[in-house]
């Protein structure tokens, strides 16, 4: 493909991504993958170049653009070489008109930025869209942090994590034989801190209430030496089905999965009421803390979608609390930097549940900042995804 043809292809893919964002459809990665399968003539260099253009434009544009061309023009305004490819020949995009509209640029819409936790000031904004590193977690059941350092000497330790190792974002770590052998998992530092903050131990009964594909479930199994009973739940069958094959590869043998029917979660967990030593509630959220990895999430968040997340979070923290044994602990977490999803949810829970208390001192020194009854991690301060977590102890 010519450079100009790559630009035109990127514009067409951006059209599809913007439409999907407005409609709540497939994520950008899925759309890009499908577009490349439809263009089998594109070589590996073409795919890399097109992907770079697509994601550079997404990072530049603050909300879903009126068209992929408007997004690409906003990027071309900062890159004369890119602008020169708008020449209308060689399957490239048409020449740029002087008065042609551009998509709005910036981190996010001002109404969205206004929802950020007060700790997320302007100094954090640039870091929120920088491409993320690739963070690994050694699986203690098969490996160690020291072994990761030997396998990937180009990396560096993750602060406060003996099992954590950080690599450049473009590293193809999952293609290494050690991954197939279950010796490590790809997991952002914030998620590693959260799983460790649960303070899980061998012999305990543990519930991962929103397990998804099981990243944190496997981290808990690793931390407990595969010596704790773990119930991993979710309402998404496709995601939950990913967990057991991953557990087998990791050598985690004491994980039970349970698919929950939406609206009937409480009835389907009656046998766990008041018996869990630890409950992890990694609630569905806006994903605003993960914009480094999925920048198109800025294009997807609407007031109505946020309201749905808030309602789900309140329901899930209540459901999780019902499962906790007297004196047990609940860890509430969201990969969000929006105050209403983080500190406000926990503050509201504590106001309505006498006897529950918020723990302190469960993060490594220098990691996270106090945010109400919990802690907020941010890209600039903690070199991680944006993440809120709060560990709560049930009354005895």
- Percent helix, as a range, is 25-40%
Q: How many strands?
A: 13
Briefly note the structural class of the backbone: alpha/beta
CATH class of the largest domain: Alpha Beta
Q: What is the CATH topology classification name of the largest domain?
A: Rossmann fold
How many domains? The number is 3
Q: Which of globular, elongated, flat, extended, rod-shaped describes the shape?
A: globular
Tell me the fraction of residues in β-strands, as a range.
Answer: 15-25%
Spans of 5+ residues with little confidence (pLDDT < 50)? Answer: none
Mean pLDDT: 95
CATH superfamily of the largest domain: Vaccinia Virus protein VP39
State the end-to-end CA separation.
67 Å
User: From the alpha-carbon coordinates, what is the Rg to the nearest angstrom?
Assistant: 22 Å
Architecture (CATH level 2) name of the largest domain:
3-Layer(aba) Sandwich
Largest sheet: 9 strands, mixed
Task: Give a quick precis of the structure.
Helix content is 39%, strand content 17%.
């Amino acid at each position: 493909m010519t450079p100009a043809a790559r630009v035109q292809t990127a514009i067409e893919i951006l059209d599809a991504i913007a439409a999907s964002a407005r409609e709540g459809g497939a994520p950008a990665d899925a759309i890009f993958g499908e577009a490349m399968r439809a263009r089998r003539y594109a070589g590996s260099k073409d795919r890399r170049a097109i992907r770079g253009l697509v994601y550079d434009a997404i990072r530049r544009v603050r909300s879903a653009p009126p068209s992929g061309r408007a997004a690409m023009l906003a990027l071309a305004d900062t890159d004369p070489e890119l602008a020169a490819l708008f020449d209308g020949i060689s399957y490239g995009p048409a020449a740029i008109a002087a008065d042609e509209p551009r998509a709005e640029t910036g981190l996010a819409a001002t109404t969205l930025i206004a929802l950020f936790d007060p700790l997320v000031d302007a100094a954090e904004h640039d870091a929120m869209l920088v491409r993320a590193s690739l963070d690994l977690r050694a699986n203690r059941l098969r490996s160690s942090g020291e072994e990761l350092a030997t396998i990937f000497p180009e990396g560096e330790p993750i602060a406060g994590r003996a099992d954590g190792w950080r690599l450049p974002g473009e590293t193809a770590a999952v293609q290494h034989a050690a991954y197939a052998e279950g010796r490590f998992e790809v997991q952002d530092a914030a998620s590693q801190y959260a799983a460790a903050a649960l303070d899980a131990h061998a012999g305990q009964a543990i519930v991962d209430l929103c397990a998804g594909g099981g990243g944190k479930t496997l981290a808990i199994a690793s931390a407990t030496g595969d010596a704790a009973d773990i119930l991993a739940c979710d309402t998404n069958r496709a995601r939950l089905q990913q967990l057991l094959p991953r557990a087998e590869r990791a050598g985690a043998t004491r994980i039970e999965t349970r698919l929950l029917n939406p609206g009937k979660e409480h009835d389907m967990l009656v046998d766990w009421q008041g018996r869990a030593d630890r409950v992890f509630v990694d609630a569905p959220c806006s994903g605003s803390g993960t914009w480094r990895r999925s920048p198109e999430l800025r294009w997807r968040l609407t007031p109505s979608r946020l309201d749905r997340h808030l309602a789900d979070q309140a329901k899930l923290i209540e459901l999780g609390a019902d499962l906790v044994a007297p004196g047990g602990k609940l860890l509430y977490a969201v990969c969000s930097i929006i105050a209403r999803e983080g500190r406000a949810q926990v503050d509201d829970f504590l106001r309505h549940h006498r006897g529950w208390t918020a723990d302190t001192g469960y993060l490594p020194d220098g990691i996270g900042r106090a945010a109400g009854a919990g802690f907020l991690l941010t890209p600039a301060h903690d070199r991680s995804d944006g993440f809120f977590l709060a560990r709560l102890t049930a009354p005895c």
